[in-house]
């Protein structure tokens, strides 16, 4: 799987070796990582990716990706799928950015790229969720074309038909 390129980002497919490094190393311990990368969410995603690799092999294109700045290659976050398409052809996405990279439109740009990737690989819909108090994430999802379809006591659920 090749890198996805956007105007400002490189969306790089995660490898098992990358995931192991993310799980094991301290934030900012690599010269090509933002000082506050990886955040706890990236570590969770890397662990999920390693479990998927152990169970089914490399899950690409419906795996995990590292978000890097094109300008100098610095890793600032992660984005990925929670598995391949379900019985209805829907894929679920999750993403996170280092705090230092938030508020600059990077999450919206990365999400648009993986939505297009899902479309290209035959997914029928993209799903995502976020907490009620995560207004920035809600804005990212809406900007990417997802619509709020339901909510419960903990989460808001979004969907985009492809």
UniProtKB/TrEMBL annotation:
UniProt cross-references to PROSITE patterns, sorted A to Z: GNAT (PS51186)
GO molecular function, one term: acyltransferase activity
Alphabetically ordered keywords of this record: Acyltransferase, Transferase
SUPFAM superfamilies: Acyl-CoA N-acyltransferases (Nat) (SSF55729)
Keyword Transferase carried by entry: yes
The enzyme's E.C. designation: 2.3.-.-
Pfam families registered for this protein in UniProt: Acetyltransf_3
N-acetyltransferase domain segment(s): 9-162
Annotated Gene3D superfamilies: 3.40.630.30
PANTHER family: ACETYLTRANSFERASE (PTHR43792:SF13), GNAT FAMILY, PUTATIVE (AFU_ORTHOLOGUE AFUA_3G00765)-RELATED-RELATED (PTHR43792)
Protein name: GNAT family N-acetyltransferase
Organism, scientific name: Kitasatospora cinereorecta
